[in-house]
Amino acid sequence: MSEPIPLIQLTSLSKTFNSKAGQLSVLRDIDLAVNRGESVAIVGKSGSGKSTLLSIIGLLDDASSGAYHLCDTEVTTLSHYQTSILRNQNIGWVFQNFNLVSSLTVQKNVEMPLRYNKNISKSDYQNMALTQLKLVGLEDKAQSYPDQLSGGQQQRVAIARALISNPDVLLCDEPTGNLDSENSDQIINLLLKLNQNGTTLLMVTHDMNLAQRCRRVIEIKDGTVI
Description:
With 226 residues, the chain is of the alpha/beta class. It is 32% helix and 27% strand.
């Protein structure tokens, strides 16, 4: 039986930035494979390159060299438009600062990824949003606004929003970074439950409690995997 094709496959991936002092190498020859259903934590000191790596995997930034396959598609050959389609269809993002729109209700925040999808009716995406809010335990907060919620509740809204498009992978950038220990535990338990139900998780974190509960931990040091 042949080996399954990884959901995410990086080969000799590097990233450099131009600075006044010349080229700055942030990532060097990264090789990484993530299979469907895995939970993977990326750890490392500040400035090690882990957030840049996640941004490239999440199609928010481009690699300088190397190959990147997502869902068996070679990303580096795509146009910007094709890349945006691939990102919207296959990746869900959860950020440290939640990135909710304060003027919109919780339900409308969750609906956002689908509101301009012409293939989904308004009633359908409204029902999908309520389904995701129920999944994260916030169906009773659908008509509340973000500033009426605790930090942990806001992060659960962000997770619901990330899941509404049924992405292949959920990318989390310091998902517990702005939360107290109680809310952090709630978010960790929610993410791991989602993973147990089949969601692929890839996250950058300084929270070793979260990292150690993932199936695999990858450490980045000076732009390389060690």
